[in-house]
Design brief:
The protein has 430 residues and is α/β, with parallel strands linked by helices. The protein is 23% helix and 27% strand.
Length: 430
C-alpha cells in the first residue's frame, strides 16, 4: 500500500517539427493534428490524465503551436475552485537556456523551473502522438510500491514490431536491467524475455517475446532533476537518459497489454483512423467510463440525403447529398455533393461554414466550395481541412505512385494527401 498520495504532474511532449506527419504538420503542431473526425491527437493523453484524476498538465511544444494553443484554451477549462490546468509551454529563451528544445529530455530539463513551482513529487511523461486508453493510477501505484526512481510502461510485441522500438530486458521482479534502441539481428534475439512473468499465456508469450518501451515514463521528481542535471548533453530520454538510469537507479517495468498505436507516420495515422470506422475497432471511442474529451462546438446534427454509406464515421455539422462512401471518416462540417464516391479515405472537414454570399462569389470566380464537388472520386486519400475539391475530380493514384510532392498534393506510401486550404479545380486527376 502507498504511504501517501503522490502529487503528480503530467508532461505531454508535443514532439519536434513532425516531419514524418508532413504535410498534416505543415501549418500545425503534431499534437493538434485532427483524429477520428472531431478530435485532436493531444486529446488522447489529456483525456487519459483527466480520467486518471491527474489534473495538472503541461504540454510542451515549439513548432506551429498557434492552433494547439487555441484548441487547449477553448477546450480544457477547469473550475476556478480547482488547482487543475492544461497549459501549453512553448520553447522560450532564457539567460540560462538560450536554445530551443533539443530533444525530449532537453524539453523537460528546460521547464523544470515551471514544474518546481507546483511542489509535485511525481512526474508522468507522455507522448502527444499515441492512440490508447490507459488509467495511469495503477502505473503510478506500481512506481510507488516498488520504490522506483523510474517506471517505464512497456508493451509485449512480436519480432517484426520490435525492430521499430526501444526494447527492455527485465529481472524476475520487473526491474529493468538492459535497454537497446531499435536492435536488429542477434542484438534483437538477445532482448527476448519470458513475458509469461507479466501474465501472458504461454502461446502469447511465444508470439510476443519482446518488451517495447511505449515512451511513457513515471519519474520521481528529485531523481528526474538529478538525471537531467548529470549531463546536459543528454537530450533524449530513449537514447540517453533511460539507459543511464538503468545503470545505477531502480528502474521498473509496468506492463500494458491493451491496444496502443504510435501514430507518428502518415501510414500509421491513416490506418489507425480508418480502423476507427470498422464495426469492431481496436480503439473504442464509445466508452462512457473513460471518454475522450474534445472541444464542444455546438454544431447541428449532420444531414444525409439519398446516400449509400457503410463502415464510416460522420461527425457533426456535415451535409452529404447523394454520396457513396465506404470505410471512410468525415470530419466536422464536411460538405459532399451529389454523385461523389469516397472509399478508404479521411475527409477532415472544415473550420467554418461558407455563407451563401461567399458561395455565390466563389462560383463566379470559378473557385470550388469547401468540401467535395459533384461526381468526384476519392480513394485512399487524406483531405485536410478547408480543402476545396471541384467537380469531376479523381483522386485515385492509378499510376501506383508511392512517393510524390506535387503542386497541391503529396503522396506518401501510396496515400494521396491534399493539404489544408488546397484548391483542386474541376476535372483534376491525381
Amino acid at each position: 500500500m502507498m504511504d501517501k498520495t503522490p502529487k503528480v504532474m503530467a508532461i505531454i511532449l508535443g514532439g519536434g517539427a513532425g516531419s514524418r506527419l508532413f504535410p498534416l504538420t505543415r501549418e500545425r503542431a503534431k499534437p493538434a493534428v485532427p483524429l477520428g473526425g472531431k478530435y485532436r491527437l493531444v486529446d488522447v493523453p489529456i483525456s487519459n490524465c483527466i480520467n486518471s484524476s491527474i489534473m495538472q498538465i503541461f504540454v510542451l511544444t515549439q513548432f506551429n503551436s498557434a492552433s494547439l494553443n487555441r484548441h487547449i484554451s477553448r477546450t480544457y477549462r477547469f473550475s476556478s475552485f480547482s488547482s487543475g490546468f492544461v497549459e501549453i509551454i512553448a520553447a522560450e529563451q532564457r539567460r540560462d537556456s538560450p536554445q530551443w528544445f533539443q530533444g525530449t529530455a532537453d524539453a523537460v530539463r528546460q521547464v523544470i523551473p515551471h514544474i518546481r513551482d507546483w511542489g509535485v513529487d511525481t512526474i508522468l511523461i507522455l507522448s502527444g502522438d499515441h492512440l490508447y486508453r490507459m488509467d495511469y493510477r495503477p502505473f503510478i501505484r506500481r512506481h510507488i510500491e516498488t520504490d522506483a526512481d523510474v517506471t517505464i510502461s512497456v508493451i509485449p510485441c512480436t519480432a517484426d514490431e520490435a525492430e521499430g522500438f526501444g526494447l527492455l530486458k527485465t529481472e524476475g521482479d520487473g526491474t529493468i536491467s538492459e535497454f537497446k534502441e531499435k536492435p536488429t539481428g542477434e542484438e534483437l534475439k538477445s532482448m527476448s524475455v519470458d513475458t509469461t512473468r507479466f501474465g501472458l499465456s504461454r502461446e502469447e508469450s511465444e508470439s510476443r517475446p519482446y518488451l517495447a518501451s511505449m515512451g511513457i515514463y513515471v519519474f520521481s521528481f528529485d531523481k528526474l532533476v538529478e538525471l537531467l542535471n548529470r549531463d546536459e548533453s543528454w537530450v533524449d530520454f530513449g537514447r540517453e537518459v533511460i539507459p543511464a538510469a538503468i545503470e545505477n537507479q531502480n528502474v521498473q517495468a509496468y506492463l500494458f497489454s491493451d491496444y496502443w498505436e504510435d501514430i507518428g507516420t502518415i501510414k500509421a495515422f491513416y490506418d489507425a483512423n480508418l480502423d476507427l470506422a470498422r464495426p469492431l475497432p481496436k480503439f473504442n471511442f464509445f466508452n462512457a467510463d473513460a471518454p475522450i474529451f474534445t472541444r464542444s462546438r455546438y454544431l447541428p446534427p449532420s444531414k444525409i440525403q439519398d446516400s449509400d454509406i457503410g463502415n464510416s464515421m460522420i461527425s457533426e455539422g456535415c451535409i452529404l447529398t447523394g454520396v457513396h462512401a465506404r470505410n471512410s471518416i468525415f470530419g466536422l462540417r464536411s460538405r459532399i455533393d451529389n454523385g461523389v464516391k469516397v472509399e478508404e479515405s479521411i475527409i477532415m472537414g472544415a473550420d467554418y461554414y461558407e455563407s451563401v454570399d461567399e458561395l455565390t462569389e466563389n462560383v463566379a470566380k470559378g473557385v470550388p466550395h469547401m468540401g467535395i464537388g459533384e461526381n468526384s472520386v476519392i480513394r485512399k486519400a487524406i483531405i485536410d481541412k478547408n480543402a476545396r475539391i471541384g467537380q469531376n475530380v479523381k483522386l485515385i493514384n492509378d499510376r501506383g505512385i508511392e512517393e510524390e510532392d506535387g503542386e497541391n498534393h503529396y503522396i506518401r506510401e501510396g496515400i494521396i494527401l491534399i493539404p489544408k486550404n488546397a484548391i483542386l479545380k474541376d476535372g483534376t486527376v491525381i
